[in-house]
Design brief:
- It is a single chain.
- The protein has 6 helices and 14 strands.
- The chain is of the alpha+beta class.
- It has one domain: CNF1/YfiH-like putative cysteine hydrolases.
- Strands 1-2-3-14-7-4 form a 6-stranded mixed sheet. The chain has a 6-stranded mixed sheet with strand order 5-6-9-8-10-13.
- A hairpin with a 2-residue loop joins β1 and β2.
């Protein structure tokens, strides 16, 4: 990934996605916002709604979108299609659609957002059909195999060939800090192959393998390799028990991306 800045907001871009300039994307840090702790993108009692709305507007403007579509994430495997004419962009918590962890945008001009605090944000883009999906995947999402479920829906509903997809896995809980003391109750036996050390697991490798098993080519998958617990540029629930969240944004622009 490379670190860039737009309108005073620093964010990371995936180098592997550079061949598709229509795909605007960015992993934002905690810097540049109006909230007490920075660029918090999550509504809740820990922050004022007007702060979050301003932060969301700043991110949308930096990415070239009029607004951002996001949902109340549920650590499951359900996906929601967001069309350009839906106008969906919640401005307060009560307006959010809840219970989804993957957003699919078949149309240009739709900026998608997932909110993160150690979970993985995963971009799935098909340069052939130009359909985009953005996935929120924590360890529960890995257990539910939300990545494969999303690939399956892209194939079934939009004619996407999994082998054509390119994927990017954002900063998230790394194997250095992914400790599961109760892993025998929380993780399936198949995850033991990803155990590193006594109680630690490599969830980045889990996601890569789940994507490959879903039909993606290994060479089409980039992993950021940045642990959010170790890198204080990002909000981390495990490190700070904070409810603040950073964001991964992606969308296809009508014009070439910046």
């Amino acid at each position: 990934m490379i670190l860039v800045s737009e309108n005073g907001l620093p964010y990371y871009r995936f180098e592997s996605l550079a061949p598709w300039p229509e795909l605007a994307h960015g992993v934002f840090t905690r810097s540049g916002g109006v909230s007490p702790q920075g660029l918090n993108l999550a509504f809740g009692p820990h922050d004022l709604e007007e702060n979050v709305r301003e932060n969301l507007d700043r991110v949308a403007e930096a990415m070239g979108f009029a607004r951002l579509a996001f949902v109340g994430q549920a650590h499951g495997d359900r996906s929601l299609v967001v069309r350009a004419d839906s106008g969906y962009s919640p401005r307060r918590p009560a307006d959010m659609i809840r219970g989804f962890d993957a957003l699919i945008a078949p149309d240009p001009g739709v900026g998608l957002l997932v909110k993160l605090g150690d979970c993985q944000g995963v971009i799935l883009y098909d340069p052939v059909t130009r359909v985009l999906a953005l996935v929120h995947c924590g360890w529960r999402g890995n257990v539910a195999n939300v990545l494969a479920r999303t690939v399956e829906r892209l194939a079934a509903d939009f004619g996407v060939r999994p082998a054509d997809l390119v994927a990017a896995i954002g900063p998230s809980l790394g194997p250095c800090c992914a400790e599961f003391v109760n892993f025998s109750q929380e993780l399936p036996p198949s995850f033991l192959a990803y155990r590193v050390g006594k109680n630690h697991f490599d969830l980045w490798a889990v996601s890569r393998d789940q994507l490959v098993q879903a039909g993606l080519r290994p060479e089409n998958i980039e992993t950021a390799g940045l642990c959010t617990v170790c890198h204080e540029a990002f909000y981390s629930y495990r490190r700070d028990k904070t409810e603040d969240r950073f964001g991964l944004v992606a969308g296809r622009l009508d014009r070439g991306a910046r």
